[in-house]
Amino acid sequence: MSWALATLGTGTVALLLRRMRRELESTGQLSAPSTACMYGCYTAHATATAAAARERLGKLRVPAAPAAALGGVLSAGAAGLCVAGMRRFAGFAQISGTDIGGLATGGVYRYTRNPQYASYIGLLAGVGLARRSAAVLALASAAAAVFRWWVGVEERHLDHQFGDAYRHYRETVPRWLPVGRAPPRPGASRRT
To answer: Which of 31, 42, 106, 109 has the smallest count of CB within 10 Å of its CB?
Structure first.
């Protein structure tokens, strides 16, 4: 039964992502129905993650106390990153992609081009580690794979929308996290 639901969910997400890509390419923004479906997928994924965490499916063999501490720190940091990323936007329409707004390059966007996606994956990984759940870590990996593909779609759209300003931003700020990097300096150029 759970494999049937997973297969149905995977197919639904694939169809939705194709629809969202077509909308960005043709209209430059996402429609309200696509956005509602996107948030429905997030809700279903979060629900599956919570169920997997509660059941501790595929329990990892790591010491409980260090795993809980590290997972808690990772989850808290990820939640903070998400809030910092969303603060830049004027409202729900900009957060969800139904209103493009301007190019976000300040605040936490000086360090990562995708704070919400990175934070969602970090939050799931933190929960998986804290609960010592291989199933939750697998769900985090699935979300990371979807986001990796989707970010490419968004980058092409932003390149078309903002041109040289986005290309410069993309060259100076990492796609995910600035691990092992110094904070960007004005005028510095880096490849990601």
So the answer is: 106
